[in-house]
Amino acid sequence: MHEVNSEEFSRRHLYFQNSTERHAYLNSFSTAPQSAKYGTNQFSNLSQKEFRDLYLRTISDRAPVFSGPKTEQLPAKFDWRDKGVVAPVQNQQACGSCWAFSVVGAMQAVHTIGGSRLEQLSVQQVLDCSFQNEGCNGGSPLRALNWLKQTRVKLVPQLEYPYKAKTGICHFFSLSHGVVAVKNFSAHDFSGQEEAMMGQLVEHGPLTAVVDAVSWQDYLGGIIQHHCSSQWSNHAVLVVGYDTTGDIPYWIVQNSWGTTWGNEGYVYVKIGGDVCGIADNVAAVFL
170 catalytic, yes or no? Predict the structure, then answer.
């Protein structure tokens, strides 16, 4: 029996050992029952650099500081999933396309809130056609929204233009074809005013956010409260709700790494203190 490429094997084994040391360190902060737990998952055999290069490819464009009015009388708990407007968790696979997933996720939800039936729209169309971005090599939700707003491109259903996890050639459709186009969007920095961000979520629908997801490589579930700085925002997600009724208030965030990751594909991030940079770069979509 010949050995499986032993050099590759020992390298993976080392990454795996490194990850268990990292998990012990990350878990040492988590004392409360709802705290985030870290451990072995589908990314444990990647080095931190490989994980970053493959999955954390979002470009964070600066957003202006939010200065609008506060929403009065917000519910203590709000989740757009309860309203049946959030599509199931997707899996971007080994393609840095999270920026496209977050934008399409927001568009699908807002379209459904407007009275249409929930339909999955084509992420691949945004990936292939949003020329200011770099497909699987990364992009920015704000650039994608800008492109959608300027061109008035209508997204087609996912079934017509399925996801391939690699950048392809842009398919053009006639203007009458397609489901929905972006009229406008707002992008703000809500750091220090996450309550205002809660208001935006309730008023406008799920929000795209760009976060620092370095520690998410090891995340298993629970509420992230520590060691998730926003020094380097690198991953785009969809904020679909919040819950302030328990000991630790938290955002409910849909990720695009499949349902085996985190809380069935979701991550909970503590509200207040801009944990993971969750409030730095947040966009609402208007259709």
Answer: no
Domain count, the chain: 1
Residue whose entry in the numeric block shows the structure tokens 């209508």: 154
CB-based contact 97:136 (threshold 8 Å):
yes
- One of 133, 255, 276, 281 is an active-site residue; which one? 255
- Encode pLDDT of 230-272 as tens digits: 678 999 999 999 999 999 999 999 999 999 999 999 999 999 9
Kindly state whether residue 18 falls inside one of the protein's structural domains.
Answer: yes
pTM above 0.90, yes or no: yes
3-class DSSP state for residue 236? strand
Q: Which amino acid is at 274?
A: D
Structure tokens at 21: 């040391």
276 is an active site residue: no
Rounded to an integer, what distance in angstroms lies between the CA atom of residue 134 and that of residue 173?
21
Active site residue 98: yes
Run of H or E including 240: strand 235-243
Give the ranges where the chain is alpha helix by DSSP (H).
6-27, 48-55, 98-113, 123-129, 141-151, 194-204
Residue 23, in any domain of the structure:
yes
The domain that holds 184 is classified in CATH as: 3.90.70.10
**Which is catalytic among the residues 98, 136, 228, 276?**
98
Averaged over 63-68, what is the pLDDT?
95
Kindly state the tokens that stand for 205: 């629908």
Active-site residue, selected from the candidate residues 41, 235, 276, 281: 235
